[in-house]
Amino acid sequence: MSKKSKKAEQRRLLDDAPPAKTKGPGKSAWRLMDRGSSVAAGALASRISALTWKAATGKKPPVNGRHPDVSTKDAVAWAIIGGATIELVKVAVRRGTATYWVRSTGNLPPGMKPLAKISDNQKEPVPTEPAPQKVRKFSLRNRGR
After folding, report:
1. 85 within some domain
2. Does residue 95 sit within a domain?
3. What 8-state DSSP symbol labels residue 103?
4. Would you say which domain of life the source belongs to (predicted)?
5. Residue 90 structural domain
6. Residue 38: which of 111, 77, 96 has the closest Cα?
7. 5 in a domain, yes or no?
8. Cα Rg of the chain (Å, integer)
């Protein structure tokens, strides 16, 4: 076989081969995005909770809830407002990250399973027969005592 015919044969084989699968973003990319969004949410949440506290009370947020000069009422209110705000910000940022992933890749993030949806006209399956009852057998010796 000549060199030209070998090259032509190789080109023909490459043209007939199925296209190589392009590997989409994987687990490590999702982990990086998820962890990054958690860190960003934590930094953002502390600032937002401080602003929320200042808007609600007009004072600076208590730095230390154990300090004797901070009233118990203020310490508890700060814990409630700060904790709720931090969790709300984290949920919003992480949901936004997951939504961005779905829009970018067209798939759920790795490790996330689709939720089972029940439409309005479908009802949940109802068991047709009751669960079998355990039959207790008594020996003749103790007669159920």
Report:
1. yes
2. yes
3. H
4. Bacteria
5. 25-105
6. 96
7. no
8. 31
- Angle subtended at Cα 38 by Cα 48 and Cα 45, rounded to the nearest 5 degrees: 5
Contact 93, 44 (CB under 8 A): yes
Helices 72-105, 27-57: inter-axial angle, 10-degree rounding: 150
Domain count, the chain: 1
Tell me whether residue 101 is exposed, middle or buried, using C-beta atoms within 10 angstroms of its C-beta: 0 to 12, 13 to 18, 19 or more. Answer: buried
How many CB atoms neighbour CB 41 within 10 A?
Answer: 22
In a domain, 122, yes or no: no
